[in-house]
Design a protein that fits this description.
Strand order of the largest sheet: 2-3-4-1-5-7-6
EC number: 3.1.1.29
Family: Belongs to the PTH family.
Number of strands: 7
Catalytic activity: an N-acyl-L-alpha-aminoacyl-tRNA + H2O = an N-acyl-L-amino acid + a tRNA + H(+)
Strand content: 15-25%
Radius of gyration: 15 Å
Function: Hydrolyzes ribosome-free peptidyl-tRNAs (with 1 or more amino acids incorporated), which drop off the ribosome during protein synthesis, or as a result of ribosome stalling.
Largest sheet: 7 strands, mixed
CATH architecture: 3-Layer(aba) Sandwich
CATH topology: Rossmann fold
Distance between the termini: 40 Å
Shape: globular
Helix content: 25-40%
Number of helices: 6
Order of helices and strands: EHEEEHEEHEHHH
Protein name: Peptidyl-tRNA hydrolase
CATH superfamily: Peptidyl-tRNA hydrolase
Length: 194
């Protein structure tokens, strides 16, 4: 049987949050499903799921968007992992990252949650932090703006121009992790830009 991977795009539900910085993980999930014309459907694990393949004959992808708010993303992620029989080393969580500049993608496996409540809840629900993270940089807020407000704001106009490329890069990173492994993907995405 083909290798199966669970890709979880973190975010908040509903139109109010759809285009906010905190929802970039779900935008990447949409990109991954859209590249394969895979439709999302409701799943009993309280998530929307698109089942597809990396390419014919390659790994199966279960692309998921929890229906819950960010801070309680763990339940749906763990429920899907159980349902599909997927171990933590085959789970990729895609999320926004304040401590990485906008328009940058960083990849890692395991480690702490860096103050990200969605990642914290997924680690708690899975019982391990040892899953892959695709960290999509949104940068820190300007001036004294509260980071909690910043992540819930829509992307600015200059960011919106670059956003499709950032989302595509993060989706490319997910595909490369599944196809060639984390180290190969890190070598590509962590390399200095020409």
């Amino acid at each position: 049987m083909a290798d199966t991977w669970l890709i979880v795009g973190l975010g908040n539900p509903g139109p109010r949050y759809a285009q906010t910085r905190h929802n970039v993980g779900q935008l990447v999930a949409d990109e991954l499903a859209g590249r394969r014309s895979a439709a999302f459907r409701q799943h009993k694990a309280n998530a929307r799921v698109a089942e597809t393949w990396l390419r014919p004959g390659a790994a199966k992808l279960v692309v998921a968007k929890p229906n819950t708010f960010m801070n309680v993303s763990g339940g749906p992620a763990a429920g899907l992992a159980r349902f599909y029989g997927i171990d933590a080393d085959r789970i990729v969580v895609v999320h926004d990252e304040l401590d990485i500049p906008f328009d940058t993608v960083k990849l890692k496996s395991g480690g702490g949650h860096g103050g990200h409540n969605g990642v914290r809840d997924v680690a708690k629900a899975l019982g391990t932090p040892d899953f892959v993270r695709v960290r999509v940089g949104i940068g820190r807020p300007p001036g004294r703006q509260d980071p909690a407000d910043w992540v819930l704001d829509p992307f600015g106009s200059a960011e919106r121009t670059a956003l499709p490329i950032l989302v595509a890069d993060a989706a490319d990173a997910v595909e490369q992790i599944v196809d060639e492994g984390l180290v190969a993907a890190q070598q590509r995405f962590h390399a200095p830009r020409p």
